[in-house]
Specification:
Length: 666
Amino acid sequence: MRKWRGIAFGLAAIAAGTAVAHQAVKLGPDTSVGKPSLSVAAPGATAAALPAGSHELSKTDVDAWLDGYMPYAIARGDIAGAVVVVVKDGQVLTERGYGFSDVEKRVPVSPETTLFRPGSISKLFTWTAVMQLVEQGKIDLDADVNTYLDFKIPPRNGKPITMRNIMTHTAGFEETVRHLIHDDTVPVVPLDQFVKESLPNRVFDAGTTPAYSNYATAVAGYIVQRQSGQSFDDYVDQHIFQPLGMKHASFRQPLPKNLQPFMSKGYKGASQKAERFEIVDPAPAGSLSASGADMGKFMIAHLNNGAGLLKPETAKLMHEYRYDVIPGLNRMALGFYEQGINGHRGIAHGGDTSLFHSDLTLFIDDGVGLFVSVNSAGGEGAPRALRERLFDEFGNRYFPGKPVTARVDAETSKKHVQQLAGNYFNSRGIRSKFLHILDLIGPVAIGPDEDGKLSAPMVTNTGNKPRRWVEIEPYVWKDLDSDEKLAAKVEDGQINRWSFDTVSPFMMFDRVPWYKNPAWLAPTLFAALGLLFLAAISWPAGAIARRRYKAANAYEGRRLKLQRIWHGWQWLALATVVGWVTFIGVGFSSLSLLGGPLDPLLITIQVLTPIAFVGLLLLAGWNVRQAFVEKRRWFVKLWAVALLLSAAVIAYVAFAFHLVGFGTNY
């Protein structure tokens, strides 16, 4: 649903959810950017009346601009088809289809009827449904959500979860990937079953840390279902789609038969065959299928103070609420998140399935909405680049602003970069299950480059190149080539948290504790595995050498049996490591494999892990004892100690990163 750019975690977490965001430094527009005096040309305005560098936001100009950009962008990105919708002042300004919804049959994209999968933009419909029930007094934003459930979400440190926490992604749940997305060869998991069986652990206290959660959104949808007395699908049909006349939209999986002919095919690339229809198990978080025209109707409703859906004061609460974690960065509203450009306030949401990639932005003070969706994963991050450039160029073309010129002096900035330097864990991660090992394998590093300037390798630009950061105010950096900002939170003179505009509303980066720091632990682990491998191959290598040179074995009887057990356990430990690597590598090659097909492998390695690694540690201790008792050469003693330390490191990592544990809910 929402995926965010550059994250090596590779969850394709429908998301995550998991958002293109570029905005605001303070509660209002960033006055340092400079908002032009006229944001959108009034009817009949001439080009001379527009701010310098801007273009009239008219159908003629937008169509010409889009027709110059989109065909090249989709062809260059190996994308089969796309739709773009722009609304203004309560009307559709333009809606354009590009490419094909079915490449083989050469069916062109129709903005009026072709259905796309906007992924986590679905959440905006779920939040709208929640707020309708808030208006009716059936949901209290600040009540314990257990009030509305027929199962219990345990408190953490005495703090329950509220709907406000869920809508701001601060419920504290860790990430989950099982039963997230798969093709339609596997039935959808019913919503009530999903929320009860997939309950993740809470790793943050409620209201303290943004951590994007598809599961939490599914819970919100389940509450809508229970409090309304209707299924979630029926509720959205009757209370959102019907009032807005959205006839080409549905959350249902599979699609109703009357809509199936309009569904765009999904592609890994336009040059490849079409894939099967995707099923999103946390359906309220990402199962929507909708045409571009219908998404335009939804944008118009929210831009018009919720007209047709919500009371004006309710819509205002959704749009203007701000959950501020790090000053200077984009923040969560209620369901929407901030995204603006050149001082123009925007609220938005992005969404991704494995195949479809979309963004929706409302320039809320200007009465303008922009929606884009593509039906292919494309090549080399093409959907991300297309969407980001579309947003940036649209904003710069129609809402130009003055560049930021403020700078923190070079010496002070170098000191701030040094304070920030280190390894960090993503708050949208897995902390209590075995996939926590991904944090060790792929840490998020930040620090100075060779000139002492800020370098954040994982925060790349649309060309997948490093951004050029300058510090514009203490602990706030801006990319020289865009509105993107990065900022750190300073407490008691220390920096332990940072984020950047694209993800800051729902994702933080927290400094890794020393005892889990990949800077020393990862190379130590790899060295330990290397020593284990050398020890393991020394067994067959020694046997071959003895046979060739007809040398006698140094051990016999019971001692020989124990030595063979020791070497056999080394191979068992290596086999367990290979099992984990295989599970993670194969599982993340396709998220559908994480919904059950790999369970036999997972259960096997979960059983083997404590046996293999604890046994290895005990036998390594025995080996050290034997080396000294038998008064072996100093090299043998040193080698035995090294193997004991290696076994200790491997066992430590297995326990610290939760490889030791059982269960298939992850």
